[in-house]
Structures are given as structure tokens and as C-alpha cells.
Amino acid sequence: MEHRPRYRVPDELRETLLDFTIAYLLERPANLATFGLNFFQRLKEERDGGHGPRPVPTTPTVNGGEENDIEEAPPVRNVARRKSVFAETYNPEEDEDDKPTVIHPKSDSQRARLAEAVKHILLFRSLDGQQMQEVLDAMFERKVKKGEYVIKQGEDGDNFYVIESGNYKVYVQMEGEPAPRAVGGYQNSGSFGELALMYNMPRAATVQAESDGSLWAMDRQTFRRIVLKNAFKKRQMYETLLDQVPMLKTLENYERMNLADALVPRSYSTGDAIIRQGDAADGMYFVEDGTVRVVRVDNNGEEKELTRTSKGGYFGELALLTSKPRAATVIADGNVKLAFLDVDAFERLLGPCMELMKRNAEGYEKQLIQIFGSKNNITDIR
Q1: CB of 239 closer than 8 Å to CB of 6
Q2: Percent of the chain with pLDDT over 90
Q3: What is the pLDDT of residue 380?
Q4: DSSP assignment of 185-252, as one string?
Q5: Contact between residue 56 and residue 199 where contact means Cβ atoms under 8 Å apart
Q6: DSSP string for residues in 135-197
Q7: Does residue 76 have a pLDDT over 70?
Q8: With b meaning 16 or more CB within 10 Å and e meaning fewer, what string describes 118-138?
Q9: Pick from 321, 306, 382: which is nearest to 356 by CA?
Q10: Rounded to whole angstroms, how far apart are CA atoms 36 and 21?
């Protein structure tokens, strides 16, 4: 693995990008480029004009909230962000692994309800099975009544919340406005509260229950250890894996980092079919550990093994390149750990590698002709 220089993100850059992210989450603009242009133009005018501290727009992360197509910069509070009393710097490299695991006992029914509630939470998407069990162990139930405030804008962040049931409204108090503005809501699903824990900042919004409901909460220290540290370790692991893929040598370091962040772990046991011949393509795979067999059924119904792929290899990209169904089945030969890249991330992140992958596709086609003796019905092998 090549040695990569370590970069420290300047505080001003970090804060500016965080402000922009929060503003974007508030407005949900139809055109990101136009919104970004207006945001940074307004920021420049504020700073050049000497109007005091830079604007700090605030908003929550709203899943399934009301869409807002406003493309101008949002109103801002003309006050500096208050530093949270919890705002110590968190460095996952310095966080030791020997800390006791947090476990809140649950009944079987509670655990089943929680598992259903967290199933589609984006923050947990990259966690493996064991890490998800840690999440289930660490969360505790909180019942709320109609009218109760779950979190309040400006307060320090203590917990991250996943919604099991109930309706909730999200409000932001903006400078110059007499009352908080309703910016979104949740109905029986979603999550909130992560921004304050991830970015060491006070709550960016108020969330109030509009009905009785049930939430699952995780305290900030456990959230950081499970979500942030595992994300850090996942990136390190996948960067090492991607360094072993010759095709990706054409990517810049930051491009490989983005690719590592987009990968999702998947595990399979002996004999499991990872992809099947004829299926629509939903993504590609990198082999983290183990070996897979690539097989194809010919016109006579006879199955032939085309190749095997092991650690550092990849498969599934050709169906994405050709926009055709899978032309072969890939089977786990023993226990296998894979890193999955969905089709959207494939198109967004692997542009620089497309030509190389297409050249590889030509080699695969030659291999098929040697095996099957004909080019008929052969477009790709994966």
C-alpha cells in the first residue's frame, strides 16, 4: 500500500462546508449548483462588507420532510455558533477498542420492533451484522406524549433518535422571524439528532411530537464509537482493499476515498448465489476475503465454470457497462466477504475507470468464445 500524506482540514473550511450542508438540508433546492452559487455569493458579500460574524444557517436533517424548491440562500442568524459544552474533538484513531460495550436489555418483541425501525436508516447502512447487533444492544426506548419536545434548538446534543411510531414536526428559529419556522416532519419513520453528535454543535432545530409515539435513542458516546469509529475503520479497510485493484490505480486518492465510503459490506456462505444469470444488474462487487466461482449455463443447459475471483478481484461491472442482464452466475466458494457498490455510485465514482473496464470486457468476450466456441448470445460474462 502506497504511503499517503495526511491532510488536516482547516477549521474555516470545515465550518463553511458544514454551514452550506445545513443550509442545503433546510431548503432542499431543486438546483444544487444555483443554490451553492447564491450561498457562497452571499457569504462573500457578508464577509467583504464587514457585517460581523459570518451567517450561520441552521436546520435539521429531515427524512421525508416537506420539499422546498426555493433556490435562493435562506435567512440566516447573524450570530456566531455557540460552542457546545460537549464540543471536544473526537479522533477515532485515539479511541481505544477496550471500552465496555453498552447494553440496554430488551425483550424479544422490543428487539424485533427496533430491528424493523433501524432497517432503513442511512447511517447504519455500512455496518456489518455484528455492528448492527451492537446498535440494537445500545439503543434504549423513549416514549413521548403529544406536545412533548424531543430536542430543542440551541441545546447540547445528548442522543441520536430513531422513530418507531408517531408524528413529529421540525422547527427552526431564524433571525428576524417572530416564531420558529416549520421546515419538515416525520411520520412513523426516520431519524434525527445526528448533526449535533457528528459535528460537535448545539441542536440545529427543535423536534416536537405531534402525537404520542415511541423513539429509540443512542447516547452520544456510543453513537460516536459505533457509527463514527466504524465508518473510519471501514474507510481504512476498504482503502487497503481498493489499493489492490489494478483498475483503480487510475483514480486519484480522494476518488478512492469517496469510493471506499460508498461501499457496503455483504457476506455470503458456501454455495450462495451472489448474482444470477439473467437478473438485472444492480451494482458491482469487490472481493474482500474468500473466493467466488463465475459460471454460465449454455444453450444446452450445461453449466460451465468460466473463472474464479479472489481477494482484490471484482465482478459485476460488465452488466453495468452494457446495460444488459447478468450473463453469468457468481457463487460463493466458501465463506466470502464482499464490498458492494450500487449502480448509482458506480456511474458517479468510476468514470475515470470506464475505458479500462471496457477493454477488460473485450478480453472476457475472447475467453467466452474459447469456452463456448461461438460468439452467439455472448455480450459479457457477469
Answers
A1: no
A2: 22
A3: 43
A4: EEES--EE-HHHHHTT---SSEEEESS-EEEEEEEHHHHIIIIIHHHHHHHHHHHHHHTT-GGGGGS-
A5: no
A6: HHHH-EEEEE-TT-EEE-TTSPP-EEEEEEE-EEEEEE--TT-SSPEEEEEEES--EE-HHHH
A7: no
A8: beebebbebbeeebeebbbbb
A9: 321
A10: 10
Q: Which three cell numbers stand for residue 134?
A: 451492537
**Per-residue 3-state assignment (H helix, E strand, C coil) for 62-122:** CCCCCCCCCCCCCCCECCCCCCCCCCCCCCHHHCCCCCCCCCCCCCHHHHHHHHHHHCCCH
Return all residues near 71 (Cβ < 8 A) that are at least 6 apart: 27, 29, 30, 31, 34, 35, 38
Is 160:191 a contact under the CB 8 Å cutoff? yes
Long-range contacts of 238-246 (CB under 8 A, 24+ apart): 238/263, 238/339, 240/1, 241/286, 241/288, 241/311, 241/312, 241/339, 242/286, 243/1, 243/2, 244/311, 244/312, 245/286, 245/312, 245/313, 245/314
Pick the residue with more confidence: 170 or 247? 170
Q: Cβ distance 150 to 209 under 8 Å? A: yes
The model carries a pTM of 0.55
The CA-to-CA distance between both ends of the chain, in Å, stands at 28
Report the phi/psi class of residue 311: left, alpha or beta, with left for phi > 0 and alpha for psi in -120 to 50: beta
pLDDT at 287: 92
Q: Cβ–Cβ contacts within 10 Å for residue 304, how many?
A: 13
Calpha distance 206→193 (Å, rounded): 10
d(CA 199, CA 278): 45
SS3 294: strand
Report how far residue 22's alpha carbon sits from residue 135's, in angstroms, rounded to the nearest whole number: 26
Cα angle value 39/41/47 (rounded, 5°): 105
In the sheet with 206-209, reading across from the earlier edge strand, the strands are: 149-151, 206-209, 167-172, 181-187
55 neighbors 19 (Cβ within 8 angstroms): yes
Query: Are 173 and 207 a contacting pair, CB within 8 Å?
Result: no
